[in-house]
Amino acid sequence: MKALILILIFINFVGCTFNKPTGPSFVPYSLKDENKALIYIYRPLGESHGYNRMYYLYNNGKKILDLKHGGYFPLEVEAGSVSLLSDVNIDEQFLSPNGISYYLFENPQSKSAFVEFEAEPKKIYYVRFKPITHFTYFEPTLSIVSKDEGLKEITNCKLIILENQVTTN
């Protein structure tokens, strides 16, 4: 029984390096439309456990991307209400150790990360995604941070490339 518990704990905290962003290192993005706002959404390096987990990100009910450890994405949005929601993406990891761990430990405690704010035209926002590690599960969080803090953390991140996305600015 002890061996089974140890194996399950190991599965819960296992993290590999397969789900890394493949784009270039951070470079400032120029807004293409002056009537829009820019949101840098990023997941900084430094997670000690669970960094192979992917978390989806929705903006106003529309799926944008999967947040990868050490990745960022510049998102242009219309001025006005912005609602960002994120949670673990089990669809991609169902049969992986992370997916098994999710159904054994996390599902009953699972909560989505959520942040809502009013975006102003031509303004730049930094939104950090960070999972908080608990004993048997990870709790995703989204928070708006200052420009100084955002730039400090995002400089070590790489662009999350979406399918059919052009990486030039």
Percent strand equals: 35-45%
CATH topology: Immunoglobulin-like
Specify the biggest β-sheet: 5 strands, mixed
DSSP helical segment count: 3
Q: Helices and strands: which structural class? A: alpha+beta
What does this entry look like structurally?
- It is a single chain.
- With 169 residues, the chain is α+β, with helices and mostly antiparallel strands.
- It has one domain: Immunoglobulin-like, CATH 2.60.40.
- Helix content is 18%, strand content 37%.
- The chain contains 3 helices and 9 strands.
- The chain has helices at 2-13, 97-106, 147-154, and strands at residues 36-43, 55-59, 62-67, 71-78, 80-88, 113-119, 124-133, 138-145, 158-159.
- Strands 8-7-1-4-9 form a 5-stranded mixed sheet, covered by helices on one side.
- Strand 2 and strand 3 form a beta hairpin.
- Helix 1 (2-13) crosses helix 2 (97-106).
Give the helices and strands, then pairings.
Blueprint: H1 2-13, E1 36-43, E2 55-59, E3 62-67, E4 71-78, E5 80-88, H2 97-106, E6 113-119, E7 124-133, E8 138-145, H3 147-154, E9 158-159
Parallel strand pairs: 1-7, 4-9
Antiparallel strand pairs: 1-4, 2-3, 2-5, 5-6, 7-8
Short characterization:
By secondary structure, this protein is an alpha+beta fold. The chain is 18% helix and 37% strand.
Q: Which key phrases capture this entry?
A:
alpha+beta; globular; disordered C terminus; 4-stranded antiparallel beta sheet; 5-stranded mixed beta sheet; 3 helices; 9 strands; 169 residues; Immunoglobulin-like
